[in-house]
Amino acid sequence: MSMGMKDMAASLVALDEDTRRTMLGTRLQAFAEMAYEERVKSMVEMLNGIHSLPDADHRVLVNSRTWVLSQLPHDTQVALVRAQLAAVASLRPVQRQRETQAMQAGMAALSDDAKQRLRAAIQEAQA
Fold it and tell me: Over the range 30-68, which residues count as b (16 or more CB within 10 Å of their CB) and which as e?
């Protein structure tokens, strides 16, 4: 894992919520445009980078990422969730558990509508 990814994750946490969401949205859109294998690899790198953050910072970043994901078009959500599930599955168990718990907390913070849309995308991605 490059030091650049750790630094990028830390710098994202330091931003205000709107700026962080904008930057994460740009990143997720770029992932969505990648071929599946490249998307998974990029997500693994992202997840490894944010894993180095303290728990509170990790949660802030995952909450923002989850919100951004909930705002994307359904097909984009499905493509990203499918790759994220594969990326999370490739992590060490402690990282996998931390990521899953943070994602659940991020989903709990969403509006009911956003939560329903994201759950539908997750179900489709798992099918």
Answer: ebbeeeeeebbbbbbebbbbbbebeeebbbbbbbbbbbb
